[in-house]
Every structure is written in structure tokens, then in C-alpha cells.
Amino acid sequence: MRSGNPVLSDSTFLDLGSGQVLAQSSDAMSLNGTLTKTGVLLFLTILTAAFAWTQSVTATGPTAAAPIYLWGGAIGGLVLALVTTFKKEWAPVTAPVYAILEGFFLGAISGMYALLYQGIVIQAVMLTFGTLFALLFAYRSGWIQVTDKFRAGVVAATGGVFLIYLATLGLGFFGINIPYIHESGLIGIGFSLAVVVIAALNLVLDFDLIETGISHGAPKYMEWFAGFALLVTLVWLYLEFLRLLAKLQSRD
């Protein structure tokens, strides 16, 4: 099993330390527990995002605190994401802190987008959660089958997007911009649509891998890790919706 989500891998839920699949017990991962932890992480993210928004922007523009919330949340969230990925047993502590830091980042960047494009944030939020619930329903209904080819395709596409963004960041230090894909033309919009689809399909792989963890009785702390992994994908999907909607509004 493999997920395109970088924090979920073949061995995320299996062979955790003992080399044996854990038996089902009260200390094992459950669906209700995973949903509860995911809900807590989402609540923390939304709460701190709302706070950061009010502190980062005003009706006339960004405040002096905006860069602090933006870069502090982004860098701090990245560090916590790496720590949680490599120390899964710390997830009950690190995952909530990651959610708080990511909320600061999302609040700041959302406020800046809102200054430029009217109504863009609520549209991106609705599209993100609409996509989440639609794909979850489709997955639970069996309309989407997670096959080996499906996994391989999504993982390859996710890796391709990562390399493009890495190249964009690297070339940007030298003042070089990759043409078209980050602009509001048809190629740029098409690229953003493709990335949104890829990010959304990662949710399906996450659902499948989490279900595998539950069926194999993964440790209880993996409920927090699973919620963290879903949050990582949702943040990515939300940001891609923001980029896509910004490009569409720029054409008006």
C-alpha cells in the first residue's frame, strides 16, 4: 500500500516497531477515534486561522504582524510536519501543535488573498470540504477502487508536481520564472486544475491507507497521525483551490 501523501507510506501503519501486526483492542486505532482526532485538528486549524487573519490584515492592507504569522506558521508547520512524520508516536502532541501553526499560516495567506479577490476564501473552503466529503462518499460507496495502478499513477503525478514546485522555488532565487503554468492564461489554469485533481486523489489514497491501519489494529496514537496526514492533504488542496480561483478571477 502506498499513499501520495508524503507523510503516509507503505509501512506507516504496519510493522510499527514490533514487526508484527497488532491485534484489535481498546488500545488499537479505530474509525471513530480517527474521526474525532481529525475533527480536533481541523477545529484548532480553523480557530488559529481566524485569529491570524484578524491580526494579519485590515481593510486597507496587511499589518506588520502578517509576515510573522505567514512565515512563522509556514516554517514552524514544516518543522512539526517533519518531526511528526519521523516520530509517529509523538503525534498526540506534535499533530495539534502542527494544526495551530498551520492555522496561523493559513489565516495570514487567506487574508492576503481576500484583499485581492473578493469572496475567494469562502469559495476555496467550500470547494475543499465539498471535495473531501464527495470523495469520502464515493470511496465508501465503492465507486472509486484503489488499485495498484491507481496508486502508482497518483504517486507519480504527486512527485511530478513536487518537482515542479521545487524547481520554481529554486529558480526563483535566481530571478527565473517558469513560464505559463503560474500565470492566469489557459495553460496556467489547466495546470492548476490538474494539481487540484492530483491533490484530491491523494485524499482517496489516504482513506484507503487509514482503513488498512484500522483493519490491522494499528496503535492508538496512529489516530492522531492519521488526522495529521489528512490535514496535510487538505491544506495542500485548499491552497491549490486558492491558486486556481485567483487565476480565474484575474481573467475577469
Oligomerization state: single chain
- Characterize the largest beta sheet: strand count, sense, and whether it forms a barrel: 2 strands, antiparallel
Number of distinct helices: 7
Shape, please?
globular
- In which range does the helix fraction lie? over 70%
Mean of residue pLDDT? 88
Structural class per helix/strand content? Answer: mainly alpha
Strand order of the largest sheet: 1-2
In the residues, how many domains can be counted?
1
Instruction: Compute the separation of the termini in Å.
Output: 43 Å
Fraction in beta strands: under 5%
- Helix-strand pattern, N to C? HEEHHHHHH
Low-confidence stretches: 17-24
Radius of gyration: 19 Å
Q: Give the beta-strand count.
A: 2
Describe the structure.
- With 252 residues, this protein is mainly alpha-helical.
- The protein has one domain.
- Helices cover 71% and strands 2% of the residues.
- It is built from 7 helices and 2 strands.
- It has helices at residues 31-56, 66-86, 91-116, 120-140, 148-172, 186-215, 222-250, and strands spanning 57-58, 61-62.
- Strands 1-2 form a two-stranded antiparallel ribbon.
- A hairpin with a 2-residue loop joins β1 and β2.
- α1 (31-56) packs across α3 (91-116) and α1 (31-56) crosses α7.
- The protein is globular.
- The relative contact order is 0.20.
- Mean pLDDT is 88; it is low at 17-24.
